[in-house]
Amino acid sequence: MTSVLYDVPGPKARRRSLIASLLTGLGLAGALAWVIVTLAGQGLFEYERWDIFQDPLVWAELGRALVVTLQVAATASVLAVLLGSVFAVLRLSATSAVRVPVTVVIEFLRGMPVLLMMFFILILFATSQYWAVVLGLALYNGAIIGEALRSGIVALPRGQREAGLALGLTPLAARLLIEFPQAFRAMTPIIVAQLVVLLKDSSLGYIVGLEELVRRQRTLGEFFGFSQYGFSFFVITLGVFLVVNLTLSWLARRLASRSPGGRGTRRAARAAIGENADTTAIGVEAAPRKGGAPRG
Amino acid sequence: MQFLFESGDVLLAGFLATLRMLALTVLFALPLGIVLAGMRISPVPSLRWVATGFTELLRNTPLTLVFFLLVFVIPRLGPIIPFPVSAIIALTLYTAPFYAEAIRSGVNSVPVGQAEAARSVGLTFSQTAAHVIIPQAVRSVVPPLINVTIALTKNTSVAGGFFVFELFASSKRLANNYANETIAIFLVVAACYLLVTIPLGRFADRLEKKVAVLR
After folding, report:
1. Which of A145, A123, A149 has the alpha carbon at shortest distance from A197?
2. Which pTM value belongs to this model?
3. Is residue B38 less than 8 Å (CB to CB) from chain A?
4. Which of A8, A226, A248, A274 falls between 20 and 30 A from B192, CA-CA?
């Protein structure tokens, strides 16, 4: 396939490419062998480092912590999508008394670390760690999803709204009944991608003291002896996160390929939530921009 | 606002530590990202696979876990790394794939016809890259790069949870010492972060609009 940088390779280029491939393969194999030998030298593959994983109780503990992680993420996701919808509609309000404060709030929420929000929710409202994490994630991601939905609405053809108004709908009804559903459907892949980010960020609960997966594996590792089992628990936890996140990313990609929304709409949204480069993972590539992203 | 007069220096030190961490991470992550992007768009399949694997691995790992690896797991295996250094390594490893993705999609956004035209007039690979593709790619690459940097600014706060002194850690310390001024502390610290993220975001916006007009 021709790409921007190179043509279809001819026989010479193919040979060079093969040589380069072999060299990388050798280098990679060497690096991998070095890592394995080093780790084995530390005795990390010995039986007594992994024997506790025969105990179903250890797995049950990890499973319970995974449930906490998923529960936090699920609750926060629902709240974030609801909040994002409200933000999007309010920020497009014709009344500046509504629009301006909402814009300020969104910019405020988007611009600071989620961790800071979680920590101060925890001490200001004296909530449990669970709700601090859920609310922090919901507020932050709500602002980001709101921006995506807003640019989805802005990117719709103007005739949609005008037709609604011509039929006698009030401006708010036209927004909610005509524009919002279309924008939401077009933005679904972006929203799902953001929810994958949300799930990853739920592990920040570790720092706030929530007993989610990362903290529980540490507690367990220390309980059984960190110098002996710390590495094993880390590897298992990493595996769990990879399986869950890759499954979700795959789901997001599938949604993206089935979504009815046009490329233009989604490109606009990608620009709106640009700081989350994850959206490229779901196959929303930056296409040559002709019209430019409407950013209101 | 008592805390500002009594402990303003703690806050300032934290802010400067955050800025330093940000600058150092960009310094290491951007070149690594460029290398990764180069591997991902190279014609050599094995290089592409390696870069894709690395990107997917790190993008699906929570940053907390990357920090956990560098702060708790690796020191047990031998090398003792000072916490600020491991924080920068963790942030670099986590951010580089995001930079790489931004660069890659920017290069891919240059229409293929541009390169084909350049090649058909007889430009060599390096001429095509230097005079035709890169000047066009840079325009669409810079805004996403800034956006990744904004995300990085916010991510530096995670280091505060792993024994590194920076803005978030200093806010925790202040919140402990001035329990009745928590709201003010929160607003001041948030303002410090916004001081970095909002101007960067505005800059990216402006640039993006300009690019849209140029096309």
Report:
1. A145
2. 0.86
3. no
4. A274
Gap between the Cα atoms of B69 and B76, Å rounded: 10
Please give the structure tokens belonging to residue B72: 């708790």
Gap from B61 CA to chain A (nearest CA, Å): 6
Q: Please indicate if any CB of chain B lies within 8 Å of the CB of A238.
A: yes
The residue assigned the tokens 């960067």 is B200
Provide the chain A residues 54-93 that lie in CB contact (below 8 A) with chain B: none
Q: Which A residues in the span 160-199 are in contact with B, Cβ-Cβ below 8 Å? A: none
Q: How far is A259 from chain B (nearest CA, A)?
A: 21
Would you state the pLDDT for residue A283? Answer: 39
What whole-number distance in Å separates Cα of residue A89 and Cα of residue A153?
9
Q: Using CA atoms, how far apart are residues B142 and B151, in angstroms rounded to an integer?
A: 14
Question: With an 8 Å Cβ cutoff, is B144 touching chain A?
Answer: yes
CA gap A110, B177 in Å, rounded: 28
Write the secondary structure of chain B as one string of H (helix), E (strand) and C (coil). Answer: CHHHHHHHHHHHHHHHHHHHHHHHHHHHHHHHHHHHHHHHCCCCHHHHHHHHHHHHHHHCCCHHHHHHHHHHHHHHCCCCCCHHHHHHHHHHHHHHHHHHHHHHHHHHCCCHHHHHHHHHCCCCHHHHHHHHHHHHHHHHHHHHHHHHHHHHHHHHHHHHHCCCCCHHHHHHHHHHHCHHHHHHHHHHHHHHHHHHHHHHHHHHHHHHHHHHHHC
Return averaged pLDDT per consecutive 10 residues of chain A, 296 residues in all. 72 87 90 88 81 87 93 96 96 93 94 94 91 96 94 92 94 93 90 90 93 90 86 92 90 74 55 47 38 35
- B147 contacts chain A (CB < 8 A): yes
The CATH number that applies at residue B140 is 1.10.3720.10
Q: Does A107 touch chain B (CB under 8 A)?
A: yes
Total of domains in chain B: 1
- With beta carbons less than 8 A apart as the criterion, state whether A193 and B59 touch: no
> What residue ranges define each of the domains in chain A, with the CATH number in brackets?
54-282 (1.10.3720.10)
Residue B7 CB neighbours (<10 A): 17
Q: Which domain holds residue B89?
A: 2-214
- Whole-angstrom distance, CA of residue B32 vs CA of residue B36: 6
Give the residue from chain A lying closest to B110, CA to CA.
A288
This model of the complex carries an ipTM of: 0.89
How much is the pLDDT for A281? Answer: 39
